[in-house]
Amino acid sequence: MPKCEQSYNDTMSRETGDLLKEALALPAEARAALADSLLESLDTEIDADAETAWRIEIERRIAELDSKAVSPLSWLEVRSRLMAALGNER
């Protein structure tokens, strides 16, 4: 077992381990929602500059889509291109 996993498991209480086991048994969508909630609970500080930057970026991307300057790609197409670029095309 890698050192980082050993350290993590040594500090994980039985209750936390049981919780993790239950969480991993959830359907993928429920696990994703749980992970999102857990990550959000760690992000207690709001960076106003980052929020503003993201809002501007989102508005820019929406404008590009609305003007047809760019075309959206499906996840299947993006994944296919990534796998090809990495030399792992299936």
Description:
By secondary structure, the protein is mostly helical. It folds into two domains: 3-42, no CATH class; 48-85, no CATH class. 72% of the residues lie in helices and 0% in strands. The protein is built from five helices and no strands. It has helices at residues 3-11, 14-24, 28-42, 48-66, 75-85. It is extended, with a radius of gyration of 20 Å. The chain starts with a helix and ends in a 5-residue tail after the last helix.
Topology record:
Layout (H helix, E strand, L loop, with lengths): L2 H9 L2 H11 L3 H15 L5 H19 L8 H11 L5
Which short descriptors sum up this protein?
mainly alpha; 90 residues; single chain; 2 domains; extended; 72% helix; 5 helices
Give the SSE order as H and E letters.
HHHHH
Structural classification:
mainly alpha
Query: How many domains comprise the coordinates?
Result: 2
Q: Could you say which overall geometry the principal axes of the C-alpha atoms support? A: extended
Oligomerization status of the protein chains: single chain
Distance between the termini: 30 Å
Question: How many helices?
Answer: 5
Quick take:
This protein has 90 residues and is an all-alpha fold. It has helices spanning 3-11, 14-24, 28-42, 48-66, 75-85.
